[in-house]
Amino acid sequence: MIVEIGHYALILACCLSLIQGTFPLYGATKNHGRLMAIASPAAYGQFFFAAIAFGALMYAFITSDFSVANVARNSHTLKPMLYKISAVWGNHEGSILFWTLILSLYGAMVAFFGRKLPKTLHARVLAIQALVGLGFYLFLLLTSNPFARIYPFPMEGNGLNPLLQDPGLAFHPPLLYMGYVGLSVTFSFAVGALIEGRVDAAWARWVRPWTLLAWCFLTAGITLGSWWAYYELGWGGWWFWDPVENASFMPWLIATALLHSAIVVEKRDTLKSWTILLAIIAFSFSLLGTFIVRSGVLTSVHAFATDPERGVFILMFLFIVIGGSLLLFALRADKLQPGGLFAPISRESMLIVNNLLLTVGAVVVLFGTLYPLLRDALTGDKITVGPPFFNLAFGLLMIPLFLVMGLGPSAHWKRTDLKGLSSRLSFVFIASLMAAGISFYMAGGTEIMAAVWLGLGFWLLLSTLFEWANRIKLFKTGTFKRMVRQPRASLGMSLGHLGMAIVVIGIAGTSFWNSEYQGIMAVGDKASIGGYDLTFKGVDGMIGPNYTAVKATFDVSKEGTQLKPLHPQARVYLTPPMPTTEAAILSSFKGDLFVVIGEANSEKYDTWAVRLYYKPLQSWLWAGVALMVLGGLISLSDRRFRMGNVKRGGKTNVA
Amino acid sequence: MSLNRFIPLMIFCVLSFALYVGLNLNPSDIPSALINDSIPEFDLPVVGGEEASFSSVDLTKEEGIILVNFFASWCVPCYVEQPFLMKLKERGYKIYGISYKDKARDTNKFLSKEGNPYYKVAADEKGRVGIDWGVYGVPETYIIKDGIIRYKHAGPILEMEFEDNFMPIIESIDQ
Amino acid sequence: MRYLLSFLLCMMMSFSAFGIGVDEKPLPEPAAEARAQELMKQLRCLVCQNQSIVDSNADLAKDLRVIVRQRIIAGDTDQQVIEFMTSRYGDWVLLKPPFDGATIILWLSPFLLLLIGFVIIYQNQKRNSENLSPDPLSKDEKARLLVLLDEKENV
């Protein structure tokens, strides 16, 4: 019964999105107040019914109602509760429903927080949001009904892939989807502005918090996925340039570019059509990412082979949404007046370089990801574009980006005196060169790239701190007051850049200075790596809720001090049967010790294959990302960004 | 109106066409690098037979079209495929089997229970011959004529796969 | 996510067990082992997504690691090891696409895109500054300006 209610609610939400997508749009062109006023209640209602539909599906998973085909395929009674819940979005139908739910949530948020927006823009934004939603509702109802029943129904479900049974991965999709879908708001604002033919500083200030919110979720979501790969399957790797990873990384790059170009629109009233285009592209990459992941065009199985209409449907939908908005852009962008001028050396031009490098980065990732497909389609050759290509091509693009990133915040708007800027920062530049040189020397003079990346990391770190110190006039009277009173948006920027600096340093350490040991160990054998001494103490069998495991014990000591023992596991899950490895990780400020246990000698079970890794500065990477997200959130809490405080034409000075 | 503004739209159209084509391709289907090459040489023991051996020469000297099937008792899809292989045997196809990374005892049990469609079965316990053939999972099936590999199929064969993928090649060889 | 997909693939085909093998002894000579590691990083694991055989749990990846080490002991050059793999599995196993006529566009794409980007930015800047710089004053305007300035001085 509850399942049928869910299905019915989904149909209602679909109808509401049709209403929300049409009447207010028409009302806005005729300036008809009542028609425009439909948008908000429709958005609330749509969210309400989408939430009921999602709740009903979750209920079916929690109660293990195997008469629902989707539950039978993806759940199992023995599964811990957390994974019954995460299984709701761990499958095709459920994940699309979840996507749609978040889309309607953002719609309701725009309706609520955007009450003070100009009426026509508000109505148009909500209508666009609803039209995107309509496509997803139709996709669900016509091709991927999550509530379909099966008869006769099985007594037990198929279970969920054990690799996905992990807290990190349970929360990875929700965060990522909040990010992906958050970009839909920016998109709706962009299309709304194109229809209105008006983009100004106020528009940029309305759009920025939504972009920032989506960016924070995307950053956190991508990192959670990467962290999961690191401890669950990477054997120490944390980024594989896998098509699915790239699908989430491309919108992130564009969202980051958008965040910066929106500042230029807000402060200097220029780069308008470019910013609109970025907003469209950012969401297009989200949709494309969903398509890539869901259609299987690039990843292993031919997921749509059994059901080609799904692939065609979602591609048609993409074509209408992205193609339509790009066409609108082509026709209307000229209406946007170019604004203030600036010199070739100025903060604006540095932000343009930032945008160029980030966008080219995203396009290169896209090209590399799709290249095998293009080649296959054109010539039938099967080739691979793997990490070596991406590391090289993308890495090279990041070097100038980080250099400019250190300069940008210290540069003035409109025009900057290059001499003044370089003399102010020359001391920072020399200091980071020295830091790179010293660490290069300390590491034994190998890996020149490590020194380059480390130097870049220090350059970013020091220049960000230097700019912050300048801004609050450190060491002069009233420093503290200035520090507290500085706008949260600028503090957020400093923290965000600082976080990136720490990430870069972490990447340099973990990519270039890592060491590993592989070998066969018998009980009592010793091995040393990264300053740690390990002794293999043997293995025990253990039984988990839905798996059996071999649990090894390693005594760990560092410079004679005994530390807590480590217990890597080799698990075999029961439903479906599948072996996994659970690494044991000892994290510290200086680096991570990573222990994996493998096979036993099959005759006597007295020796075991073991791999040890030492990953210097690995935790810096995670800490840096956390700082970036924190910076984003602080910036988001800036009073001036709250919707109600921004009026068109009204001027607020922002540093 | 400047034409430059249409560039993003044009790029997108090309992209979506490529994706449309991509929907009909299978990225996990890795074609054999050995098509139209002679079969890799090997010499393996026969499963069950202590002394007899099964080598690449046995395959080269065959006159008609033969199938070579890599399988294993630990491979779930092989159980799905086996009844169809029995049917192929009844239809008169000569199938050679190579049991991949399997113990002789398990292979024998598998064959006595699921039926033995093979003319001869070699035991590739280490999986080295499989690697020489470019096998990356089981089951995989090859079409061979005069010691030349004509086609490779990864995954289980059922009636549909056989009609769609095998028959056209077998017919073209016959002509 | 990606593992969900390769899991589905597993249902289509079977791959034998997982793990780090007991027969995976590193080569005694550090230089040879480093070469082996470097080669393994360039070879794609066939049964998983974009991972190299060095990063993969799959059994086949393990076998290939063992083979790479054996080839090196047998005195193969790096090129010969790579050829050993491509002759069996095709160019598909190379994570780094070869630099040749067909992939040149891929390898040059970052530079081409940057170049195009700079050209577009330069053109836009030029057009904007032309559009936005005020037109020179006409004769009438100059006269009016003079009058205005005169009035101001007289006040």
Describe this entry's structure for a reader.
- The complex is a heterotrimer of chains A (655), B (175) and C (155).
- Chain A has four domains: 1-165, no CATH class; 169-183 and 197-306 and 331-385, no CATH class; 417-511; 515-616, Tick-borne Encephalitis virus Glycoprotein, domain 1, CATH 2.60.98.
- In chain A, 62% of the residues lie in helices and 12% in strands.
- Chain A is built from 19 helices and ten strands.
- In chain A, strands 2, 3, 4, 5, 6 and 7 form a six-stranded antiparallel sheet that branches.
- Chain A is globular and about 85 Å long.
- Residues 300-306 and 650-655 of chain A have low confidence and may be disordered.
- The radius of gyration of chain B is 20 Å and the shape is elongated.
- Chain B contains six helices and seven strands.
- Chain B has one domain (33-174): Glutaredoxin.
- Chain B has helices at residues 7-23, 56-60, 76-90, 104-114, 128-132, 159-174, and strands at 43-45, 53-55, 65-71, 94-100, 120-124, 140-145, 148-154.
- Chain B is α/β, with parallel strands linked by helices and 175 residues long.
- Chain B has a five-stranded mixed sheet with strand order 5-4-3-6-7.
- The longest helix of chain B has 17 residues, at 7-23.
- With 155 residues, chain C is mainly alpha-helical.
- In chain C, helix 2 (30-42) packs across helix 3.
- Chain C has two domains: 2-93, Helicase, Ruva Protein, domain 3 (Orthogonal Bundle); 104-154, no CATH class.
- The B-C interface holds B 4, 28, 30-34, 72, 74-78, 101, 127-128, 131-134, 136-140, 154-156 and C 9, 11-16, 46-47, 59-60, 63-64, 67, 86-90, 92, 120.
